[in-house]
Task: inverse folding
């Protein structure tokens, strides 16, 4: 017999409405221009409720952009398909529900240092550990950084700037073009010092 889901508490529903409104507002206005008052108006609640649940604009932003990339275990992937595995996961994130959070982070990080710090935390806590699972661990920061340059370049061109040739590419074509580069980054050795 199936156990019924516990009822959603009213405070949980209110928080969810606030977070949805915040994500939509941050996506349009960015962190700097979005206001608690505008987010509260979008959520059709009093601004004091936003402060009650999240404490500050920064607290609200942190909750709104919390994301688990759920990156694949590259050590368990076929060694010759590491780049493909990573690109496919990246595209699944950007073309799925999580894309709003990533759009907010990418747009806002360019103009706001505290948002850029959040990107660095995601890199340190989620991307770097995935890269550490393959290749030389001492070289993982370099390889991870190069991987991020490729993935964020695709994100910028496909989802923010919406460059027609990149937008028109089918996901499988992107995988075919980008996976070999990521494969090389994942399996490369550090360059010899000069």
Result:
């Amino acid at each position: 017999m199936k156990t019924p889901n516990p009822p959603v508490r009213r405070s949980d529903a209110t928080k969810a409405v606030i977070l949805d409104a915040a994500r939509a507002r941050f996506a349009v206005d960015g962190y700097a221009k979005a206001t608690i008052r505008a987010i509260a108006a979008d959520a059709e609640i009093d601004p004091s409720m936003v402060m009650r649940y999240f404490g500050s604009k920064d607290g609200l932003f942190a909750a709104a952009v919390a994301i688990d990339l759920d990156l694949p275990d590259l050590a368990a992937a076929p060694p010759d398909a590491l780049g493909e595995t990573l690109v496919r996961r990246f595209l699944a994130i950007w073309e799925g529900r999580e894309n709003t959070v990533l759009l907010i982070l990418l747009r806002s990080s360019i103009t706001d240092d505290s948002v850029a710090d959040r990107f660095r935390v995601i890199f340190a806590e989620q991307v770097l550990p995935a890269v550490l699972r393959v290749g030389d661990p001492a070289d993982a920061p370099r390889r991870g950084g190069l991987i991020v340059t490729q993935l964020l370049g695709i994100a910028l061109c496909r989802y923010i700037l919406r460059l027609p040739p990149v937008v028109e590419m089918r996901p499988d074509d992107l995988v075919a073009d980008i996976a070999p580069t990521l494969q090389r980054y994942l399996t490369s050795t550090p360059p010899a010092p000069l």
